[in-house]
């Protein structure tokens, strides 16, 4: 991809694949979806035959809800899948469990004003509880995400004919030159309008090839408590429009800014509709575009409106870029972030909103 060789990663832990899925559920199920990690909240409640890895609700269009199970192809799939999915089906078929799910989903969707407002907009009504009750009264779709789709898995799923099932083969790739796991490949469970998703055939025009989706690098999540393990240092916070995230992830760097001192860390504020500081990474170097250690050439840099002679690129350390699990939202007093800002790591960790800087 783009002249860089990638190799398929071997995933040994189911938890690792599950984390990839949670970080990119919107790419799998659609932007109008919401992931619910309710294992701990439901495990003590009666009526659930087995606890799935998660649930997803797709709100707009024709609403759907999914029971999510993440599996590794190295596991004994037939016996495990049939037993597990049978328990799911039995568990969510009872009125008691469905009421508990509605309550849990409602608590999650109304836990913060941003999520609540987004859901109300997508369903076209403030009656979230009523919407959830009606949706959960329907049968769910079982979404099975696995690192390799096998015949045994398909046979196991076919042995459960009375429930809708969808299998997603989710593959992780790493760069062969630096060993960074930053690309993935899968078939989404929603239609991408206006994009031809076939593998290019001989004779395919350049314009047609450019329409085929590229494999987007993978970004894992991190909590503020995990940031406390890092040494104290200076954090550079930069503002960006939503499309700037593509630049950050693709190049593992940020540009283009005028800066003299090298910070220890970098954070990115993403403007509306996200309106919060969402990404964090460790800084490796500050370079000019086209330098030997720059991830972007001067020719590529000139394509961007923000590029000007003298502006530099903030290069992050490999594998250090993470998405903040909750992020730091826009405050009331200060409003959105404008221009770069320097704060200490302690200030960054302790901030509830941007007003605290």
Describe the structure.
The protein is an alpha+beta fold and 357 residues long. The protein has two domains: 163 residues, 3-Layer(aba) Sandwich (Restriction Endonuclease), CATH 3.40.91; 137 residues, ph1033 like fold (Roll). Helix content is 29%, strand content 25%. Strands 9, 10, 11, 12, 13, 14, 15 and 16 form an eight-stranded mixed β-sheet that branches. The protein has a five-stranded mixed β-sheet with strand order 2-3-4-5-6. Strand 7 and strand 8 form a beta hairpin. It is globular.
Classify the helix fraction into a percent range.
25-40%
For this structure, the CATH topology of the largest domain is Restriction Endonuclease
Evaluate the radius of gyration. Answer: 22 Å
Beta strand count: 16
Distance between the termini: 40 Å
Strand percentage, roughly?
A: 15-25%
Q: How many domains make up the coordinates? A: 2
